[in-house]
Amino acid sequence: MFLLSMFKGAKIYLVLAIIGILTGGWFYVQRLQSNLDTLKINNSKLSDAVTSKDGEIQRLNDNIVEVREVNTRIKQKSSELKSEVQGLRDTLSKHDLGFLAANKPGLIENLINKSIEKDLKKDIMELTNE
User: Fold this and answer.
1) Global pTM value
2) 77 or 126, higher pLDDT
3) CA separation, residue 37 to residues 3, 47, 48 (Å)
């Protein structure tokens, strides 16, 4: 009889243990589902951030291409201006402008003013046509 009552007590403990395990498992699954929902939200935010950054990277790459094109044009214009300066140096080295400026300052002044005016008009036309 004692043995029978002992098995009844063991049955109660066994049932309580099973209920405890099932309850613990249910809470564990609920916590996992909550974590999964949080991770889905975070993943969505991360995807949006990555998409935004990809767009920003593309915009920056486009800017780099544009800057390189402008840099190429500037280098080309600089090269043209350097050759023009060299041509002017060659022309001026053939003439003794110091002597002419001292003896005929009006002539040199008129030549320089006309040249500057012509160059300015040409540059203004180039700038307004671009």
Assistant:
1) 0.45
2) 77
3) 51, 15, 17
